[in-house]
């Protein structure tokens, strides 16, 4: 076993609001895992030493809400095909790793490209974060994810359901394919052209069925939920996470705390639409976001301050929102009311717990993978430090960028 020590750094382990100064940690080069850490002079017998020059080290980012492979919304000239989605996904994943993202949960990808890439990776490795795939989401007819893709627009991006039995079949189909996460479209949304954010789409019975079936197979369930009633149904049904949460109520905040339901707000997706969407998106979508953005931040802020479990998600793949810019969500979480530590924890242990990978990811503790970033400035003082363009990115102890 060969070992490398990374030394002379300020280490943010990720489990408490403090830095370990003059820190070092040892990585097993074969497994890519941390085996020991400390501060001061490292006297361990190692094969290689890396001087980090008093820079700041933190865990790689875990993004719990992504859509890899998405094409530009402004380029309707080229059809969305499995080939185009795969091509874009591979680029998105590499760029995401360069941006500091070392683990993602996929929340809906056409043609199950994310599922297929994870299976392919076992024999044909490619650069990018580790991946918990979902494949096709579940939507009602006319719902938020009812739209056509393919060379001739002859395939739907979603499983379209009309009953709990339809939902059970859809979950089982995704399980058979190899999906590890189920994406439910509980309400209308911003980018869909035929509904409003408070349109309640999947029924309570349908979501209960999805959760029961998915959890029996060790899959996680996330719900796109923006309107109050759809959020309530999702929480009562027992989803693992509410995505977005524009109008989460005080009642559901308390229920989420009691049940341990996570909130993955994806604030940056909304912020980018408000700041840059005028004249580039449909007036319908742009105005919807403008109408709801203040309530979005206010309700998310209330949930954060109340102590709801928080994960970092960005809705990567949406308008002007590439995976590589995931660190921008940290700034938006702070804008909504999170402390710097709460935002950073969401991007580490929070997302890792939601994805059920916290035994090996999410913090820089012995026994976990050495996925880490090296920064010039202290992220606990200003989370914008994570946006550093030339930051060092390590995955399993190997420098990638």
Automatic annotation (TrEMBL):
Q: Which domain of life is it from?
A: Bacteria
The molecular function terms of the Gene Ontology recorded here are: hydrolase activity, acting on carbon-nitrogen (but not peptide) bonds
Q: Which UniProt keywords apply?
A: Hydrolase
Amidohydrolase-related domain: residues covered: 56-388
Quote the InterPro entries the UniProt record gives.
Answer: Amidohydro-rel, Metal-dep_hydrolase_composite, Metal_Hydrolase, Metallo-dep_Hydrolase, OTAase-like
SUPFAM superfamilies in alphabetical order: Composite domain of metallo-dependent hydrolases, Metallo-dependent hydrolases
Q: Which Pfam families match?
A: Amidohydro_1 (PF01979)
Enumerate the PANTHER family for this protein.
Answer: ALPHA-D-RIBOSE 1-METHYLPHOSPHONATE 5-TRIPHOSPHATE DIPHOSPHATASE
The name this protein carries in UniProt is Amidohydrolase
Q: What organism does the UniProt record list as the source?
A: Lactobacillus kalixensis DSM 16043
């Amino acid at each position: 076993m060969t070992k490398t020590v990374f030394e002379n750094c300020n280490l943010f382990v990720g489990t408490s609001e403090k830095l370990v100064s003059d820190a070092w940690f040892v990585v097993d080069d074969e497994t890519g895992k941390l085996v020991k850490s400390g501060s001061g002079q490292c006297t361990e017998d190692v094969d290689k030493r890396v001087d980090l020059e008093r820079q700041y080290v933190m865990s790689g980012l875990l993004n719990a809400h992504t859509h890899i492979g998405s094409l530009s919304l402004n380029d309707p000239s080229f059809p969305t095909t499995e080939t185009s989605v795969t091509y874009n996904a591979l680029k998105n994943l590499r760029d995401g790793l360069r941006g500091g993202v070392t683990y993602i949960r996929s929340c809906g990808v056409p043609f199950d490209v994310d599922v297929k890439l994870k299976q392919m990776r076992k024999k044909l490795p490619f650069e990018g974060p580790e991946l918990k795939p979902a494949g096709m989401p579940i939507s009602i007819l006319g719902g938020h994810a009812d739209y056509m893709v393919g060379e001739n627009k002859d395939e739907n991006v979603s499983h379209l359901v009309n009953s709990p039995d339809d939902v059970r079949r859809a979950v089982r189909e995704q399980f058979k394919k190899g999906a590890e996460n189920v994406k439910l479209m509980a309400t209308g949304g911003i980018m869909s052209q035929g509904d409003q954010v408070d349109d309640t789409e999947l029924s309570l019975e349908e979501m209960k069925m999805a959760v029961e079936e998915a959890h029996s197979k060790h899959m996680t369930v996330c719900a796109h939920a923006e309107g109050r009633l759809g959020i309530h149904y999702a929480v009562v049904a027992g989803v693992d996470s509410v995505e977005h949460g524009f109008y989460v109520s005080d009642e559901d905040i308390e229920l989420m705390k009691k049940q341990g339901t996570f909130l993955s707000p994806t604030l940056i997706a909304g912020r980018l639409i408000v700041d840059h969407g005028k004249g580039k998106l449909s007036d319908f979508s742009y105005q919807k976001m403008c109408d709801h953005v203040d309530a979005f931040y206010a309700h998310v802020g209330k949930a954060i301050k109340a102590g709801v479990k928080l994960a970092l998600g960005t809705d990567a793949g949406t308008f002007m929102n590439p995976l590589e810019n995931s660190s921008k969500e940290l700034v938006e979480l702070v804008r909504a009311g999170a402390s710097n530590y709460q935002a950073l924890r969401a991007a580490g242990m929070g997302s890792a717990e939601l994805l059920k990978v916290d035994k090996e990811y999410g913090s820089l503790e012995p026994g976990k993978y050495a996925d880490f970033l090296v920064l010039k400035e202290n992220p606990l003082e200003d989370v914008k430090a994570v946006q550093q363009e030339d930051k060092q990115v390590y995955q399993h102890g190997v420098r990638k960028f």
